[in-house]
Design brief:
- The chain is mostly beta strands.
- The chain has a single domain (about 25-160), classed as Roll (Pnp Oxidase, Chain A).
- Helices cover about 15% and strands about 45% of the residues.
- It has 3 helices and 12 strands.
- It has helices spanning about 10-20, 65-70, 85-90; strands spanning about 25, 25-35, 35-40, 45-50, 55-60, 75-80, 110, 115-120, 125-135, 140-150, 155-160, 160-165.
- The strands form 3 sheets. It has a 7-stranded antiparallel beta sheet. Strands 1-11-12 form a 3-stranded antiparallel beta sheet, with no helix packed on it.
- It is globular.
- The structure holds flavin mononucleotide.
- Flavin mononucleotide (FMN) binds next to strand 3, strand 5 and helix 3.
Length: about 170
Amino acid sequence: MKDTDELKGISEESFKQGMRQFAAAVNVITVKYGDIQDGLTATAVCSVSALPPQLLICVHQEASAHEQLLKSGKFGLNVLSSKQESIAKRFAGIDNSKREERYDIGHWTQLTTGSPILVDALVGFDCEIINSVTAGTHSIIIGHIVDVRYGDGTPLVYKDGKFIKLK
Ligand SMILES: Cc1cc2nc3c(=O)[nH]c(=O)nc-3n(C[C@H](O)[C@H](O)[C@H](O)COP(=O)(O)O)c2cc1C
């Protein structure tokens, strides 16, 4: 395995241009640590293992929720439906709302860990963090899924800088 310092890579702009071609499901990662609730909109999310049940999320180290995620050791992962674009914008800071206003919209509940779970998401996974690896500007955080809430609907997708509602 090579160290990144030894490798020549493509530019940030080339990376972003390529990644814009990924059509990805839009999710909201949630965290509750003490009295503070935070979260972020994320597409860098992936299924890892069914047995044991694990998934991963990639979170920028400068995201306001990053420290809370690692301190709390748990998170919620909510897969958004096409009706939840406003929630995606709020948790991405696109609508200029303040961090404290993120939970003002949407119907929220909790499962086992206490992390906020959206009542009408396509699915909500409740996770305990079992590992975290630094990769460039992000942390790859692996969650062991301890609980799940199923919903239904059509997915909210993000591609080429735009939210797309699948029919
Ligand atoms: C569609 C979309 C997908 C995103 N995916 C990620 C992601 O996977 N990981 C990440 O760290 N930030 C991602 N972001 C950016 C975060 O949502 C955004 O930086 C975060 O809300 C900033 O929170 P803060 O202002 O509280 O730090 C994404 C933004 C959008 C609009």
